[in-house]
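FORM 12-B: Structure-to-Sequence Request
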């Protein structure tokens, strides 16, 4: 996953014996806002004016439900071609449900772009939804497809940012598809994407980016140790660390990589037919080396 971020240089300050973080490029405005609270990092053990940073065991958390970490989501995920793809579809649908809406930015953009119909965002993480709620002209629902009950209300249901991959078992997927189907109007469509397992993208899920915490601390967010832990299931641990924090925060998560044949069988069994299929966001058709499996599905006729 491409997560561009802040680049800083560590410069020694002779008068204090400490290192100062100096931004080199990107997000300069954010750093400027917080410059006075960016801490100095000790770089000489004997320096008299520096605190020693203790190395403690990391704590475990979740990057969507932990409010300290959820605020990094939009910093780590720039608006991009996938957002434009979904936004275009949203603008031509009267009623839209965004499942796993996160910070709600797609729904925000739709309203800002002049969408006048019903927009609903559903997410089980209140720390994400709290950020979404800065707009009050969208309906926000705390929960998931198991808790919300919709009855043929939406022309379009979207599931973006690879939310579909949090459903790990065939049973989870079947239950989610059944709920999406109940939410869809008779001629409605369900649009979502999954990463193509044939490309083994998790092998490149390393690296990270720097972000700014609520108190101005610079925090490094990185993916560590992505690995296949079961057939089709990848586990990866997000690590958040900062010179200002006593300990690192680790966020393990698992994602299902469903192959296209299994995906289509699960859709068929749930009463869907695939009406469009793309390799990514430029409208090109799917091929085995496609990075994404972008699917637009509709109710099977008569079902
Ligand atoms: C990668 S973010 C995607 C957010 C948003 N869709 C986007 O594209 O920016 C994943 C989101 O899925 C939500 N999520 C996790 N499990 C979920 C579930 N079972 N049902 C719906 N959403 C879920 C998380 O809380 C998080 O906000």
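FORM 12-B RESPONSE
SEQUENCE OUT:
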């Amino acid at each position: 996953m491409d997560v561009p971020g802040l680049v800083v240089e560590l410069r020694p300050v002779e008068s204090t014996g400490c290192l100062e973080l100096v931004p080199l490029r990107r997000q300069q405005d954010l750093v400027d806002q917080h410059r006075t609270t960016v801490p100095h990092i000790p770089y000489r053990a004997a320096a008299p004016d520096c605190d020693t940073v203790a190395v403690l065991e990391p704590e475990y958390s979740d990057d969507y439900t932990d409010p300290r970490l959820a605020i990094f989501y939009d910093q780590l995920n720039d608006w991009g071609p996938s957002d434009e793809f979904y936004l275009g579809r949203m603008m031509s649908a009267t009623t839209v449900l965004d499942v796993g809406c996160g910070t709600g930015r797609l729904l925000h953009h739709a309203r800002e772009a002049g969408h006048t119909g019903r927009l609903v965002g559903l997410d089980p993480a209140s720390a994400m939804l709290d950020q979404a709620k800065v707009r009050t002209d969208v309906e926000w629902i705390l929960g998931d497809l198991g808790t919300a009950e919709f009855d043929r209300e939406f022309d379009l249901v979207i599931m973006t940012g690879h939310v579909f991959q949090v459903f790990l078992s065939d049973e989870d997927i079947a239950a989610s598809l059944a709920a999406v189907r109940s939410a869809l109007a008779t001629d409605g469509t369900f649009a979502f994407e999954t990463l193509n397992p044939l490309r083994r993208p998790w092998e490149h899920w390393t690296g990270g980016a720097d972000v700014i915490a609520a108190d101005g601390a610079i925090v490094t967010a990185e993916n560590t140790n992505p690995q296949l832990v079961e057939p089709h299931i990848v586990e990866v641990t997000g690590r958040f660390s900062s010179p200002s924090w006593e300990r690192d925060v680790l966020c393990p998560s698992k994602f299902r990589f469903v192959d296209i044949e299994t995906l289509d069988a699960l859709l068929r069994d749930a009463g869907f037919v695939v009406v469009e299929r793309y390799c990514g966001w430029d409208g090109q058709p799917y091929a085995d080396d496609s990075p994404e499996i972008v699917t637009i599905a509709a109710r099977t006729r008569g079902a």
